[in-house]
Design goal:
The complex is a heterodimer of chains A (303) and B (381). Chain A folds into two domains: 216 residues, Rossmann fold; 66 residues, Alpha-Beta Plaits. In chain A, 35% of the residues lie in helices and 28% in strands. In chain A, the strands form three sheets. Chain A has a six-stranded mixed β-sheet, with helices on both faces. A four-stranded antiparallel β-sheet of chain A has the order 2-1-4-5, with helices on one face. In chain A, helix 3 crosses helix 4. The relative contact order of chain A is 0.13. Chain B is built from 15 helices and four strands. Chain B has a four-stranded mixed β-sheet with strand order 2-1-3-4, with helices on both faces. The two termini of chain B are 25 Å apart. Chain B is mostly helical and 381 residues long. The longest helix of chain B is centred in the middle third of the chain and has 31 residues. The chains are: A alpha/beta (303), B mainly alpha (381). Chains A and B meet through helix 3 of A and helix 1 and helix 9 of B. Bound molecules: adenosine-5'-triphosphate and magnesium ion.
């Protein structure tokens, strides 16, 4: 799948701006970005639901914009908000999805049984989908999205209502699907999830700020990450706002995590001076994590 | 390629949702029953018991006898008495009465010369000599009431003097076929089938597509391989059955309560009914693809229902309408269906007579379904 200059405007607002993507088969590709950065809009264009204002994409050999019908059987799409029938039971929803995708008779029953087992839905079969808990809804939605064994799966913030334990389980399922040969595009604003993706695109205000594997992104980060331990960190934090050469500062428990621009020659000294730290404060360099990548990617462009 | 299997999937889903929707389920049965009782009893084109005021300036035995004769027609009830014509006019303006009967002081003198009494041939055509015996002041704003009171204009008065009526020979003989007793219900009950089906069928389907969007199911639905035509058919087929149930309910109750029997062929009625239901449903689907919310769908439904009641020939005869209104009426499926069902139910019309109407309805259904399927795009923009 590839996209070239994909753009979508809503009136004067540009939701997705010149998005170039290249996604190889057999990977989990993540869209990481804050609220309103255009993740959902990008997915809708790639699934053929929205016509791009500009640019084009080629998804599983189907040219977009164009006739998206042949794509429907090959892709699965789990929408951000639950979009199955709340007034049907879990079993009825599964039956409907199976028949709409042309699965019938024994084949349909076998597939439904398989998914019920795999996604742990047996105890919920007779329950109305609308009355499921958030996590259960997401399990059902994923099961229904993979009903027809799509080769490409779009998941829009699939784990926003899921506890960490279930989230692990959920990602295990995703890796199982990839092992079976599917490719997955997933959007998220959780760093720990983004870290699990094979590749990642960081989106901000409709533009792609960076992409690569999580490791590449962290290695290529042109900033120095410093951690300060000491007293009166709140005051230091306030003094760092807008200081030259300082990209961001965030308190994490008893420490202050500071991103200093990579071209600053002596980052420790600059930080000590800018924050007005006393001798009592200890400064140490640490490895950048994905959140640092995210923060620096979105900050640099904003500046 | 249209897949009947996918259509069945949609149909099954619709039935399941309908089964859970108790309110809609109840309406399917209650709307026809209540409307039938309401319209059947309430609509009466033969006016009776119009409230009227009496101004009896003669105050004689003759005037009292005259009042009794007028009341005996049952067209008016005298609910008020006034001393002067002015007071009666005020009562009309206030709206308690629709008419006033003013009997002048010289009633006796006028009566003797009146041709209506038939004592002597009128001596001359001089207005001074032969004048009407009394006056009606009528609130003519409602033409039906005006017409009812005008019918009193030539009331024979011979009975007033206990003389036999002059048995005049009518100019024309009128043979009333199909509804000899002139009961309003005979025309109303079959008409109601058309009106109620228009109302419920358009209403149910006009929300069909919008509901998917409003409940957030659209994004999922348009990502499946389901085709617009399959979706549309799957959504209207359950209502074909429901429409038939409603039609049977109305005709059955119409027979039991109002004694309106079906003289024509039940098979013709079934096919005609199905075609009309399909036409109404596809009209509803077209609305559904235009409306953005269920409220808009409702409003557009009323846009269809009101002309259906007023222009279709249900309330007023089609033939009496101006030509542009007739064109408009012909654009409504219910106009054709009313001709069809009144033909079959009341006049035993056969396929030859109602064939054109069947064809019209089939065209409506096909065109509506086509438009709805074409308008429905599997896109969010
Ligand atoms: N139909 C629409 N009409 C107008 N503006 C829209 C429409 N859909 C999205 N937008 C705007 O486009 C921008 C991107 O929206 P989008 O839903 O793609 O964000 P997102 O990255 O999915 O956010 P979130 O993380 O909150 O889901 C937002 O500013 C939004 O207001
Ligand atoms: Mg979103």
């Amino acid at each position: 799948m590839e996209a070239r200059g994909l753009t979508r405007r809503f009136g004067p607002k540009t939701a997705v701006d010149g998005l170039d993507l290249e996604i190889e088969p057999g990977v989990i590709y993540g869209f990481l970005g804050p609220n309103g950065c255009g993740k959902t809009t990008a997915m809708r264009m790639l699934t053929g639901l929205l016509t791009p204002s500009e640019g084009s994409a080629r998804v599983l050999g189907v040219e977009l914009p164009g006739r998206a019908e042949p794509l429907k059987r090959k892709i699965g799409y789990m929408t951000q908000s639950f979009s199955h029938y709340r007034d049907l039971t879990v079993a009825e929803n599964m039956g409907f999805t199976a028949s709409v995708y042309g699965l019938r008779g024994r084949k349909a029953r076998a597939r439904i049984g398989e998914l019920t087992e795999e996604y742990d839905l047996a105890g919920l079969a007779a329950q109305m989908a609308g009355s499921l808990s958030g996590g259960q809804k997401q399990r059902l939605a994923l099961a229904l999205a993979v009903m027809h064994r799509p080769r490409l799966l779009f998941l829009d913030e699939p784990t926003s209502a899921v506890d960490p334990e279930s989230r692990r389980g959920f990602w295990e399922k995703l890796f199982d699907l990839v092992a079976e040969g599917a490719s997955i595009v997933v959007s998220t604003h959780f760093m720990d999830e983004a870290e699990r993706c094979h590749r990642l695109a960081i989106l901000d205000r409709g533009r792609k700020r960076a992409d690569g594997t999580p490791q590449e992104l962290m290695d290529a980060l042109g900033v120095t990450v410093l951690e300060v331990e000491g007293t009166d960190l709140r005051a230091a934090r306030r003094r760092l706002d807008g200081a030259a050469g300082i990209l961001s500062a965030a308190q994490i428990g008893a420490r202050l995590r500071v991103l200093v621009e990579g071209d600053v020659p002596e980052p420790e000294a600059r930080l000590r001076e800018a924050a007005g730290l006393g001798d009592g404060a200890a400064i140490a360099r640490t490895r950048p994590n994905l959140e640092d990548v995210f923060v620096s990617a979105t900050r640099e462009q904003a500046a | 390629m249209i897949s009947p299997f996918r259509m069945m999937a949609v149909l099954r889903k619709e039935l399941l949702q309908l089964k859970r929707d108790r309110m809609t389920f109840g309406m399917i049965v209650m709307i026809p029953i209540i409307q039938l009782l309401l319209f059947g009893y309430a609509i009466e084109t033969n006016l009776r018991h119009i409230p009227a005021a009496l101004v009896d300036q003669a105050q004689s035995g003759l005037s009292r006898a005259l009042v009794q004769m007028v009341e005996a027609t049952q067209i008016v009830d005298f609910t008020e008495r006034h001393m002067t014509a002015e007071a009666a006019e005020r009562a009309i303006r206030a709206g308690h009465v629709r008419a006033a009967f003013v009997i002048p002081e010289d009633l006796a003198g006028r009566l003797v010369r009146s041709p209506a009494v038939g004592m002597d041939p009128p001596p001359a055509t001089d207005a001074q000599v032969s004048r009407p015996v009394a006056q009606w002041i009528v609130d003519g704003s409602d033409t039906t009431i005006g017409a009812a009171l005008k019918s009193l204009r030539n009331m024979p008065l011979t009975e007033l003097f206990r003389r036999p009526q002059n048995m005049s020979v009518p100019t024309f003989e009128v043979a009333l076929f199909y509804n000899p007793e002139q009961r309003t219900e005979v025309n109303i009950v079959p008409g109601l089938v058309g009106i109620i089906l228009t109302m419920t069928m358009v209403l149910f389907t006009s929300a069909a597509i919008v509901r998917e969007s409003e409940h957030g199911n659209m994004e999922m639905l348009i990502n499946t391989p389901v085709r617009p035509v399959e979706l549309m058919l799957g959504k209207i087929v359950p209502f074909l059955g429901i429409g038939l149930i409603q039609a049977c309910l109305i005709l059955g109750l119409g027979r039991a309560i109002f004694g309106v029997a079906i003289v024509g062929s039940l098979w013709l009625l079934l096919w005609g009914g199905l075609l009309f239901i399909a036409a109404s449903l596809s009209l509803g689907l077209v609305i559904s693809t235009i409306a953005k919310t269920q409220l808009q769908a409702m409003q557009m439904t009323f846009f269809i229902v009101l002309p259906s009641i007023l222009l279709s020939g249900f309330m007023f005869p089609y033939e009496g309408m101006p030509v542009p209104a007739q064109w408009l009426a012909n654009a409504l499926p219910v106009t054709h269906f009313l001709r069809l069902i009144r033909g079959v139910v009341l006049r035993d019309a056969g396929l030859a007579e109602i064939g054109p109407q069947m064809l019209w309805l089939a065209c409506f259904a096909a065109i509506g379904l086509g438009i709805a399927s074409l308008r429905f795009r599997k896109r969010l923009d």
